[in-house]
Amino acid sequence: MRHDLRWKGALILIAILIFALLISPVGTKIFKGAPIRQGLDLQGGIELLLTPDYRLGVSALSKLRDELLTKLNEANINVQASYLGTLDGDRYEGLRFSFANESDLQRARNLGVFPQQYQLNAFGETKRLNFKPEIKGNAIELTVLQSADDFPKDSLKRSLAIISNRINEASHGMAEADVRLDEGKNRIHVQLPGIKTLQEAKSLITATGRLTFRINNRIVLDGTYLQDVRVNFDQTRRSWVIAFQFKGDGAKQLAKITTENQKKQMAVYLDETLLMDPIIDEPIPNGEGIITLGGTPKSEVERYALLMKSGALPISLRVVQSTQVAPTLGDEIVKQSLVAGIVGIILVVAFMILFYGIPGMLADVALGCYAVFVLGLIALLRGVLTLPGVAGVVLGVGMAVDANVIIFERIKDEIRNGKRVRPAVQSGFERAFVTILDSNITTLIVAVVLLFLGSGPVQGFAMTLAISILVSMFTAIVVTRLLLEWWIDHDPDRYAKYFGVKEVVE
Which of 25, 221, 241, 281 has its CA 20 to 30 A from that of 389? Predict the structure, then answer.
């Protein structure tokens, strides 16, 4: 056997083994999960529709309630206050004030306790509020909303980028999450494959993320100075910890606070939700420290760290519609696609053997290599397979077979024109290369356009199609050629009959 065929064959064999390992159970250990992840349409998940949420958090709403009750009590008006609406996250619709009689209700209205606009100072912030009072019997139901003018005009665009970042951080890179902004309707649409519960999705996405550090319920440090957050395993404590680093003035503030408040609890809040309340063991002079959480599981520690570092949403978001997509439909479609794929592959293999004999069998072997390479690349790039993605892979199979057909026909032409088998094979591949390249480049251009201009499932289709095109060209031009040259190496002319030629022209 020619020396070049040996080392080329060895390289390709090594590559096949590596990619085969990536999609095998070994790959599950390498990627710490399924080598080829499935999209929402195949494995199920959560769909969310988000809009800006101008309601107050419970803590701020409670402070507003106390302020209004104080004014009413000072006027000797007996009243009872309760929250309006059901708790959604940490927010209610507003407040309900129930009066003893209609006379007290009218007195409260005359005092101007419930104006259309109100200014609230809470937790170091000034909030401009819009009141919408509605009389129900002897009660006033007060819908409370923050002024939309207090939020940046591009709040939703910025929120879109932060949500995408949170999802990528949570999935360690590339998740087939479809995050889209509908500017016309002022809302964000999110698809989260693999997320099982609505609460899990909301905790990841809708937390606005204003991080504060508090001692005795007083804000002593703001999370804007936080430079880095990561999860480490502490060998001494034998537990997972959150390592953090503050920058600039934040590091100086942290040194002063931790020096003056040793052995006190410094609670970490995300908005008005308590994340953790660690104890200050010792001063932190350089801005770098750790938060110990006892035996808290790694997944929970990672979630805390993610929420701390992924960035604060410029506006609260409210889930107005949620849909849990069951994987049942996906399972059925996968089964049907599998049956269709097996039937298609059998027909392709039979076609190549029937029309080209042993060269067709070699092309079928190259087709098997194509499948291993495509699936291995999807796993290596941490891509996610969706139904459109499956269509891209199947389309690539057809293109791979088409390339082999073109090559074999060119070889036949060269033999008919008087060339021996070995030079005919070389010339046939050279002539077929231009045709294969032209046809594949045009399809690749379309795939690239879809990849950059499309979204969600369209991008999934474009990605797998692009991979399939490149791999199909490689297997047809390199793998098939290697197998063919290896097959005819010892006595090329005796194999001319497999290309439709009964005898070789001398």
Answer: 25
